[in-house]
Amino acid sequence: MDIIETPLKDLYILKPKVFTDNRGYFFESYSQIKMPKSYQTIRFIQDNQSLSMKRGTLRGIHFQNHPKSQTKLIRCIQGIIWDVAVDLRVGSPTYLKWFGVELTSINFLQLLVPKGFGHGFVTLEDNTIVAYKVDEYYAKDQDRSIRYDDQYLDIDWKSLTPILSEKDKEAPLLKDSDVNFKYPL
């Protein structure tokens, strides 16, 4: 597995080695020992999966506040997403910077998002399936979101008319949120 650094501190792209033959392909989608050194003690405890039926479905920007914050390992197993992570850790050298990468069922890339980041994605094809691992269980009382179109963050979502949930339509702007991350976590 290749570990690719991004411009944001502690955010990585994982590129597995894919073995193909006349039957199809095989790859390790996760191996703890092959993770970046600072992540080798992470213990993923839950897998999540979503289906977005329509192109332009936007999910995010989501996170759980400390002490229930989550590390996430995201991959697209069907379709294409524009996956975005934003550093919400006050004091981080990349505070409020965002990074986006296209994850597809063909490029096999995964995004490793650390605690203290907000995360979201927009689907670029109909019937897109996204799977991700987390290292903390869902905690409704710590579940938070920030408006995807917050002008302060100025994220390029690749979609002019996103399909949103009620939760994402009603998400606060960053300046009105109670995000509580400090760097380092």
- The radius of gyration is 16 Å
User: In total, how many domains does the architecture comprise?
Assistant: 1
State the helicity in percent bands: under 10%
Stretches where pLDDT is under 50 for at least 5 consecutive residues are none
Using the 3D structure, state the CATH architecture. Sandwich
The neighbouring-strand order within the major sheet is 1-2-10-7-12-5
What's the order of the H and E elements? EEEEEEEEEEEEEH
Beta fraction: 35-45%
The N- and C-terminal alpha carbons lie at a distance of: 26 Å
* Mean pLDDT across every amino acid position: 97
| Count of DSSP strands | 13
Q: Write down the CATH class.
A: Mainly Beta
Tell me the name of the CATH homologous superfamily.
Jelly Rolls
Return the structural class: mainly beta
Commentary on this structure:
This protein has 185 residues and is mainly β. The chain has a single domain, classed as Jelly Rolls (Sandwich). The protein is built from 1 helix and 13 strands, in the order βββββββββββββα. It has one helix at residues 166-169; strands at residues 2-5, 12-15, 19-21, 24-26, 46-52, 58-64, 72-78, 80-87, 98-104, 110-113, 117-123, 128-134, 143-145. Strands 1-2-10-7-12-5 form a 6-stranded antiparallel beta sheet, with no helix packed on it. The chain has a 5-stranded antiparallel beta sheet with strand order 9-8-11-6-13, with no helix packed on it. A two-stranded antiparallel sheet has the order 3-4. It starts with a strand and ends in a 16-residue tail after the last helix. The mean pLDDT is 97.
